[in-house]
């Protein structure tokens, strides 16, 4: 909210702040590390995404839009390409080499809540606040990137928006965090059917932008919760395993360490970040 991006030393308790980036002119909504280089991409309410060289602390490129940038993701098969979703419902593919948007996906959507690439980078999922359109048709859409068309827009027909969508790291499935206070499971192959016999329940969403993440092995699923706890579920059985109290107010994001399997980071509604080992 203070327009900055903070980079933290997780393991150095004496000097936790590694660098503070002050390039945005409004609140920052999302940040992503480049998969292969020490570059950081951030998007925010100043209607721009900004690419920064972290080692030098220098801004490399600014990608301007006509909407507040809500969420950004790098294409896993090409780190020169990223996808942005914004407050006006536009989805754009950008090339960081040219600084230009190469593709735009139109569907008269509400605010983009989350996006997620498939592992091969050929498809992506968008989750949308569908207050301006039919909630049973457009809350979750599967897009074909090359053809620039939706493969399905009737994936999730229940009357809830979904603040988070995630592909399973190995299986042909994806999940969606629902404001119905559960996580739904879907097939990642056409016709992308909802699994009506399995869901992850126990945590609360209640309108907060609560995110969830898979463990490195894909065997566990961790979710934030409106009660400030992190909830862990077994993916195969959907059974609740345990919970950890992380914050007094809502826990909005959890992420597994990309290399160390027993480390998880979480952030809270009041602006705190906590790392558990």
What characterizes the major β-sheet?
4 strands, antiparallel
Approximate strand percentage: over 45%
The total count of strands amounts to: 25
Summed up, the domain count is 2
Helix content: under 10%
Given the helix and strand composition, which structural class is it? mainly beta
Give the oligomer, counting copies of the same chain as homo and different chains as hetero.
single chain
Domain Translation initiation factor beta propellor-like: 16-145
Keywords: WD repeat
InterPro entries: TIF_beta_prop-like, WD40/YVTN_repeat-like_dom_sf, WD40_repeat_dom_sf, WD40_rpt, WD_repeat_protein
Protein name: Translation initiation factor beta propellor-like domain-containing protein
Give me a quick take on this structure.
With 277 residues, this protein is mainly beta.
Explain this structure.
By secondary structure, the chain is mostly beta strands. The radius of gyration is 18 Å and the shape is globular. Helices cover 1% and strands 51% of the residues. The longest helix is centred in the middle third of the chain and has 4 residues, at 135-138. The strands form 7 sheets. A 4-stranded antiparallel beta sheet has the order 3-4-5-6, with no helix packed on it. A 4-stranded antiparallel beta sheet has the order 7-8-9-10, with no helix packed on it. A 4-stranded antiparallel beta sheet has the order 11-12-13-14, with no helix packed on it. The chain contains 1 helix and 25 strands. The two termini are 28 Å apart. A hairpin with a 4-residue loop joins strand 5 and strand 6. The chain folds into 2 domains: 1-154, 7 Propeller (Methylamine Dehydrogenase, Chain H), CATH 2.130.10; 159-276, YVTN repeat-like/Quinoprotein amine dehydrogenase (Methylamine Dehydrogenase, Chain H), CATH 2.130.10. Pfam families: eIF2A, WD40. WD repeats lie at residues 21-62, 62-104. Residues 16-145 form the Translation initiation factor beta propellor-like domain.
């Amino acid at each position: 909210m203070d327009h900055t991006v903070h980079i933290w030393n997780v393991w150095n308790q004496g000097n936790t702040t590694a660098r503070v980036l002050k390039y945005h002119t409004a609140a920052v909504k999302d940040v992503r590390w480049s998969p292969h280089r020490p570059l950081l991409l951030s998007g925010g309410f100043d209607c721009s995404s900004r690419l920064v060289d972290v080692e030098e602390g220098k801004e490399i490129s600014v990608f301007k839009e006509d909407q507040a940038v809500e969420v950004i993701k790098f294409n896993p098969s090409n780190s020169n390409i990223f996808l942005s979703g914004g407050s006006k419902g536009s989805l754009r593919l950008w090339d960081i080499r040219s600084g230009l948007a190469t593709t735009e996906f139109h569907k008269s959507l509400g605010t983009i809540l989350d996006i997620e690439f498939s592992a091969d980078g050929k498809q992506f999922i968008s989750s949308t606040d569908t207050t301006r359109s039919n909630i049973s048709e457009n809350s979750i859409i599967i897009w074909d990137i090359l053809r620039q068309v939706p493969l399905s827009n009737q994936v999730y027909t229940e009357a809830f928006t979904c603040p988070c969508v995630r592909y399973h790291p190995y299986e042909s499935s994806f999940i969606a965090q629902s404001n119905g206070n559960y996580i739904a499971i879907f097939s990642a192959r056409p016709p992308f059917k909802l699994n009506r016999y399995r869901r992850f329940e126990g945590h609360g969403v209640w309108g907060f932008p609560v995110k969830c993440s898979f463990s490195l092995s894909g065997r566990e699923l961790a979710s934030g919760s409106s009660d400030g706890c992190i909830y862990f579920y077994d993916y195969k059985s959907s059974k609740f395993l345990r919970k950890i109290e992380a914050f007094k107010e809502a826990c909005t994001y959890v992420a597994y360490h990309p290399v160390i399997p027993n480390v998880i980071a979480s952030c809270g509604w009041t602006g705190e970040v906590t790392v558990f080992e």
